[in-house]
Amino acid sequence: MGNGLSDQTSILSSLPSFQSFHIVILGLDCAGKTTVLYRLQFNEFVNTVPTKGFNTEKIKTHST
């Protein structure tokens, strides 16, 4: 499941830089939704704690 995250740069670089996207991540408790969000934002793994409520983040990418 996590193997797709290691190739994250190819996923984000394929998106056009002039468009804005809204992405919703749904899943069960302790399924790794926050981990995926922070992996996309910071491009590294971050230790997280269980989330109460929900997270919203803005992620900027630079396509070449």
TrEMBL record:
Binding positions (GTP): 27-34
Keywords: GTP-binding, Magnesium, Metal-binding, Nucleotide-binding
Signal sequence annotation: none
InterPro entries associated with the record: P-loop_NTPase, Small_GTPase_ARF, Small_GTPase_ARF/SAR
Any one GO molecular-function label of the UniProt entry: GTP binding
Amino acids binding Mg(2+): 34, 51
Top-level taxon: Eukaryota
Pfam family, one: Arf
PANTHER family for the chain: ADP RIBOSYLATION FACTOR-RELATED (PTHR11711)
Name of the protein in its database record: ADP-ribosylation factor-like 4A
Organism: Mus musculus
Gene: Arl4a
